[in-house]
Design brief:
The chain is an all-alpha fold. The chain is built from 9 helices and no strands. It is 63% helix and 0% strand.
Length: 206
């Protein structure tokens, strides 16, 4: 599936949905950590990142939704770094607590979605976070790095000091437990995109 530059607003919204906005929220929360969530709003960071992606996608071409999602993740990393720099400057100046402008869906751009859709993304993100936390610790990080952070198996093995056999085994067992937890929470079909493909971070994606 080739994603060409200059997608229409409708195509853009379908593309954003296909890569799992809820799973992107989970990634942002993970990368911020508990200490920064009080100062930086994950939803604002995602919104700002999608705005930047929309503005820049006309000059980009992606071979698949997974490639597009990897690009959005890089934008998210840059937004977090920018927000942290701004946070430090505002803290020194005695400014407000939240440093990202606007709120989720406040900027009119394709992909920001309707209030009901945004509420669904929040609900799914909460269910995904709960499901991954209920996976045993020895399996959890492999599942998190593969499904949410989109790392390759060799990179996961290197980061965690595991063999490839161990990574594959833990991913297989952990992903099945993660899927089961999502099904128990009633999250299943709603994490599949409009053409029935698994949404990244959803129960059918490995």
């Amino acid at each position: 599936m080739s994603i060409s530059p200059g997608a229409s607003p409708g195509e853009w919204e379908r593309l954003v949905e296909s890569v799992g906005p809820a799973s992107l929220l989970v990634v942002i929360q993970s990368r911020l950590g508990p200490s920064l969530r009080g100062r930086l709003d994950p939803e604002d960071i995602l919104q700002e990142s999608l705005v930047r992606a929309w503005r820049g996608h006309a000059n980009a071409k992606f071979a698949s939704p997974r490639a597009f999602r990897a690009w959005v993740l890089r934008i998210i990393d840059h937004r977090i770094k920018d927000a942290l720099r701004n946070s430090g400057a505002i803290k020194r100046g005695g400014g407000r607590k939240h440093v990202m402008p606007g709120s989720w869906g406040s900027i009119a751009t394709p992909g920001s979605g309707t209030p009901s859709r945004l509420a669904r993304h929040r609900e799914q993100a909460a269910a995904m976070s709960d499901a991954i936390e209920r996976v045993p610790p020895d399996l959890r990080e492999v599942v998190r790095l593969r499904l949410f952070h989109q790392l390759g198996l060799e990179q996961i093995a290197s980061e965690l000091g595991l063999t490839m056999t161990e990574v594959r085994s833990r991913l297989r067992r952990g992903a099945e437990l993660y899927r089961r937890r999502l099904r128990e929470a009633g999250i299943g079909r709603s994490t599949r995109n409009s053409v029935g493909e698994p949404t990244i971070g959803g129960p059918d994606c490995v």
